[in-house]
User: What shape does this take?
Amino acid sequence: MPYEPPTPPAGLPAELVDTLNEASPEQLRDVARYAEGLAEHKEREARLEKESDEDDVEERPDDLPDDVPAKATITIKEINDNRYYYWQWREGEKIRSKYKSPVSPDE
Assistant: This one.
């Protein structure tokens, strides 16, 4: 029974199949390594882009006041030996803060 060459995938363009058929075994192995690396790169780029798109959709915390932007973070400030949570965000060159609550509920 004679050895038959592999059948190319149906989705490959005819020009690419012709080029590959003319390549040496060494060139084909180089192409295979390159194609695998390129596929991994493109998958990683697509995944990172998808994650970036998901990060762009900011959810407002339930306890975030209307006058505080969604990008605000919570910080702790100590005043007269008492600790308090504050919403904090940047507006241009200034850092803005708004009181949230005491760190310990009994304060």
Notes: Residues 21 and 28 are 9 Å apart (CA to CA).
